[in-house]
Amino acid sequence: AQSVSQHNHHVILSEAASLELGCNYSYGGTVNLFWYVQYPGQHLQLLLKYFSGDPLVKGIKGFEAEFIKSKFSFNLRKPSVQWSDTAEYFCAVSQSDKLIFGTGTRLQVFP
Amino acid sequence: DTAVSQTPKYLVTQMGNDKSIKCEQNLGHDTMYWYKQDSKKFLKIMFSYNNKELIINETVPNRFSPKSPDKAHLNLHINSLELGDSAVYFCASSPPAAGARTDTQYFGPGTRLTVL
Known about the structure:
The structure holds two protein chains of two kinds. Chain A is an all-beta fold. Chain A has strands at residues 4-5, 10-14, 19-21, 24-25, 33-38, 44-50, 56-58, 64-68, 73-78, 87-95, 98-101, 105-110. Chain A has a single domain, classed as Immunoglobulins (Immunoglobulin-like, Sandwich). Chain A is built from no helices and twelve strands. In chain A, the strands form three sheets. In chain A, strands 2, 5, 6, 10, 11 and 12 form a six-stranded mixed beta sheet that branches. A four-stranded antiparallel beta sheet of chain A has the order 3-9-8-7, with no helix packed on it. In chain A, strands 1-4 form a two-stranded antiparallel ribbon. The mean pLDDT of chain A is 92. Chain B has one domain: Sandwich (Immunoglobulin-like), CATH 2.60.40. In chain B, strands 2, 4, 5, 6, 9, 10 and 11 form a seven-stranded mixed beta sheet that branches. A four-stranded antiparallel beta sheet of chain B has the order 1-3-8-7, with no helix packed on it. In chain B, strand 7 (64-70) and strand 8 (73-78) form a beta hairpin. The termini of chain B are far apart. Classes of the chains: A mainly beta, B mainly beta.
């Protein structure tokens, strides 16, 4: 069965610092990959997704992610974080009819 | 316009009670889901319905019973509530799968259930 690992459980950054959150999945076949963000007290919102094509995917709010098939990875990046990026970030991988979520990474950005 | 809505937003109840959470989507999607998010923020799928038919039923106690009166609604009824049922429950919907793999899921605002 598919599993998703997010190794960074809690990340603390200052504003303007660069961000990279790791995501690795276990299944080696064709997958759809997602990053979702959950701001405090809110529902999950899609940041970006990869289905096929260019492995470097641009999302909303300046986020991007790179799919590296050989490493089973889909890491999330942002060159300069803002205080408003403080949130929980979830990587997810499709498995037939459902999404398998990672355990999430809590990002705290301090001014 | 709210795409995926859930009611109630908060639900506080005693152990042993029966409660329901309602979910509606106006996106025209065929597939709807229920997820449970525990206190550590871990999200796990519970059920999935496609056009009113049950597609996924993860290892969820049979005290939980989803009901889909039409493809725009997926309600969750919980019998004999237990302390461990306290969590945030999210409803979601998605368009038809892309290449047999699920497409983007759109989430509702969540229902925070507290069992005392």
